Amino acid sequence: MNLDNKISFVLDGKIQIIDFNDSEYTPTTTLLHYLRSLPTHKSVKEGCGEGDCGACTIVIGEINSDKIQYRAFDSCLIFLPSIHGKQVITTENIGNSDNLHPVQKALYEFDGSQCGFCTPGFVMSIYALYKQNHIPNKTEVTDAIAGNLCRCTGYRPIIDAAEYVCSNKTEDIIDKSEKETVALLNSINKTETIFISNSEQKYYLPFFKKEALKLRKENPQAVIVSGETDVALRVTKKNELIPNIIDISLVKDLKFKIETDNAYIFGANYSLEDVRQNCRGKLDALYDMLCVFGSRQIRNRACLGGNLGSASPIGDAIPVLMAYDTELTLESVNAKRTIKLRDFITGYRQTKCNVDELITEVYVPFPTKEIIIKSYKISKRKDLDIATVSACFSLKLEAGKVKNICAFYGGMAAWTKRAINTEKYLMGKEWNRNNVELAMKELVKDFKPISDARSGEKARNIMAKNLLLKFWSETEKVK
Ligand SMILES: Cc1cc2nc3c(=O)[nH]c(=O)nc-3n(C[C@H](O)[C@H](O)[C@H](O)COP(=O)(O)OP(=O)(O)OC[C@H]3O[C@@H](n4cnc5c(N)ncnc54)[C@H](O)[C@@H]3O)c2cc1C
Ligand code: FES
Ligand code: FES
Fold it and tell me: In which region does residue 22 sit, left (phi positive, over 0), alpha (psi from -120 to 50) or beta (all else)?
């Protein structure tokens, strides 16, 4: 274990080292606060501090087979140690008022900025898209900036600027130094577990699963973080001091995707954006749900293991993966077991994951041809909003009758729950409107939703019923 109490990363074309000994920074200082503490990176703005406005968006470069992959992230949700071994890019690194980057120039020329508070965040979201080296369509452009709020300009000129600049890409300052940056990134230790501590906190940063499991066994009280998008809010919003953290975000052998003839197997650290980009055509209900999951910045960071591990009653991947009959692999130092996701969650944010275990793999079978799976999410806004009610249904029909149906709902109970009475009622019946409307009455027996700021009990019941009806209306012709 590396006990130097230091992390290294690339910023401003150089390796930067943060020494946490006698430092103004703690292991849970966010990247946003670090950048704003520097005299040279004040463009990074703090708006909400919780991933909702995108004012703090930066781009992070990570080595991917000798090339650098550039992605946008909310710096307010990143604990400093997890940037170890990466390249951090802010607007100051790509251009300045004497020499604007094409993205900055386009926003200026298309009148895409007024007060300017949101502009550096937009620049970085558009820059990440620009670095993908392909001409995006309008949906891709709006998806790339859905995590950035602008209160004064209006989005049309911003979208126009993004479409223009991404269709007219030229080599830029970051491309020109990419070889040197790769060499710098490769020179940083990414094998020996890093341990950061101060008088109040201990932060472990392993690079391998074996080491992560060992740390998990030795520190059962430690909080696990993968993408941190859930846990970081405990620090940024609740001012909580988390004394012990095992950050598994850099564990390489938990970040993978394997495709077999009949399933995808994802490592727990596979990001939700990577899942989204891979599941279209194979797991369409999952794709649809991930298209309305948070924002690009959130999905780039959040991991499958984190969404399932959070066991949130409004975790969007949970009802969908339950409908696909997903299995999880849970591992500890000496043991490995599999469990169905349907049996994994036991209560409000409670799971069957033991204190010495980690979710390591997520096995998602491809549905057979005759099974229809569809997902739905009702929220106050389409983008960047959490679900009021969500649902995912799986249906198998035989001669127009229900051979099998599974209905999983989020937002209707303290955890993602199955509508057992509704399913029972529909089994063996004709898949017609009359039977579905009668089944909708059974839903009231399945759930007793709460009333909260997002919605009332009565409204949630109506939404749940109507989602079943919507599913029927979209599948009635498939008989
Ligand atoms: C602005 C914003 C928007 C959001 N929008 C959505 C949304 O639309 N839909 C939605 O569902 N959620 C949303 N979230 C919540 C959050 O992003 C997701 O739950 C996300 O999937 C969490 O993943 P993570 O990797 O960031 O988890 P983390 O914060 O790292 O961890 C979450 C929990 O999972 C546990 N955990 C992580 N990895 C493992 C593992 N391998 N084994 C065991 N336990 C593990 C951790 O201990 C922790 O309790 C949003 C959050 C923010 C801040
Ligand atoms: S400050 Fe709003 S997303 Fe980070
Ligand atoms: S230009 Fe003012 S918030 Fe966007």
Answer: left
Shared domain check, 430 and 337:
yes
pLDDT bin (cut points 50, 70, 90) of residue 170 is: very high
Range of the domain at 127: 102-171
Q: Is the pLDDT of residue 22 over 90?
A: no
d(CA 402, CA 405): 7
Q: Within 10 A of 475 (CB to CB), how many other CB atoms are there?
A: 16
Q: Ligand 2: residues whose CB is within 6 Å?
A: 46-49, 51-56, 74, 76
* Mean pLDDT of the chain, nearest integer: 96
- The last residue of one of the domains, among 222, 247, 272, is 247
Show which of 117, 147, 171 is a domain's final residue.
Answer: 171
Closest CA relative to residue 12, chosen from 88, 77, 76? 88
259 plus 403 within the same structural domain? yes
Q: Are residues 297 and 425 in the same domain?
A: yes
Average pLDDT rounded to a whole number, residues 308-329: 97
* Residue 154 CB–ligand 3 contact under 6 Å: no
Query: Can you tell me the mean pLDDT for 36-44?
Result: 97
**pLDDT band at residue 64 using 50, 70 and 90 as cut-offs:** confident
What total number of domains does the chain contain? 3
| Ligand 2 atom showing the smallest separation from residue 51 Cα | 3
CATH of the domain at 402: 3.30.390.50
Same domain, yes or no: 81 and 223: yes
**pLDDT score for 479:** 58
Pocket residues: Cβ below 6 A from ligand 1? 50-52, 223-231, 233, 268, 293-294, 298, 301-303, 305-307, 309-310, 312, 315-316, 353, 358-359, 386
- Per-residue CA distances from 35 to 40, 58, 87 (Å): 8, 10, 13
Q: Is residue 384 part of a domain?
A: yes
Please report where in the chains the tokens 């501590």 appear, as a residue.
197
Query: Binning pLDDT at 50, 70 and 90, where does residue 237 land?
Result: very high
